[in-house]
Specification:
230 residues; alpha/beta; Rossmann fold; 9 strands; globular; binds S-adenosylmethionine; methyltransferase; Thiopurine S-methyltransferase; TPMT; SAM-dependent_MTases_sf
Length: 230
């Protein structure tokens, strides 16, 4: 997706991916990560997700990154948090907004995730990916946006486990997935392994069929994965 695609979505308020309530798979499976209090959770491609408030309520600090500044502004406005805005000392296209929710710190970088470094993020204990991997296309090439994104996550936080949410389709083979365009994209399970098995032990912690079916009656799936660094 070109940056303009996302800028337009936010400018025209076509943000159907944004949830009004915390994600049920997050609430159900987050405790399996067994994070100590004040752990830092990285939320890539964070939008203005309410899940970040839920994570802070669990006693975590949150670091996010989001391309579109309007999304970050809206996050702080909607939760009535007064942010401090800090420009990156060396990278002109990066800045962060930082504020506090009770005793937790929320730091949202504005910019392209590919411009961030592990040093910018600081120490990260876990990554929560909802609507991020599935937002990016994979044309099958070695340097597709989705492949580059998965590599970048590993570089940014090599010691962090991940809770990853994805979408699939029940009862079809991998070839069938290519018929569906996104975002969000459906991702065959084999692909999740191909992106991440070099860095993580991968467990599928939940997969459930949604009410929605394709034209052949195959149900769409919501999946939750736990990825633990080797
Ligand atoms: C489908 S939305 C999901 C937002 C959020 N994770 C949620 O659950 O609501 C994907 C977000 O990624 C942002 N985005 C896309 N490409 C990006 C990039 N290269 N760097 C940072 N953010 C990006 C978009 O602006 C958009 O807000």
């Amino acid at each position: 997706m070109e940056p303009n695609f996302w800028q337009n979505k936010w400018q025209s308020n076509k943000v159907g991916f944004n949830q009004s309530k915390p994600n049920t798979l997050l609430m159900k499976h987050f405790s399996a990560l067994q994070l100590p209090p004040n752990s830092c959770v990285f939320v890539p491609l964070c939008g203005k997700s309410i899940d970040m408030v839920w994570l802070a309520d669990q006693g975590c600090d949150v670091v996010g990154v989001e391309l579109v500044e309007l999304a970050v502004e809206q996050f702080f406005e909607e939760h009535q948090i007064q942010p401090t805005i800090v420009e990156h000392p060396n990278t002109p296209n990066l800045k962060y907004y930082q504020g506090h929710l009770d005793s937790q710190t929320i730091t949202l970088w504005v910019g392209d995730i590919f411009e961030l470094t592990a040093q910018d993020l600081g120490s990260v204990d876990a990554i929560y990916d909802r609507a991020a991997l599935v937002a990016l296309p994979d044309d099958g090439s070695e340097d597709s946006l989705r492949v580059r994104y998965s590599q970048q996550l590993i570089k940014l936080a090599p010691k962090a486990q991940q809770l990853l949410l994805s979408f699939g389709l029940s009862g079809v083979d991998e070839a069938e997935y290519a018929k569906y365009s996104g975002p969000p994209f459906l991702i065959p399970s084999q692909k999740i392994y191909s992106y991440y098995q070099q860095a993580y032990e991968i467990s599928l912690v939940e997969a459930y069929e949604t009410q929605q079916v394709n034209s052949e009656g195959n149900p769409f799936l919501n999946l939750a994965w736990q990825l633990v660094p080797h």
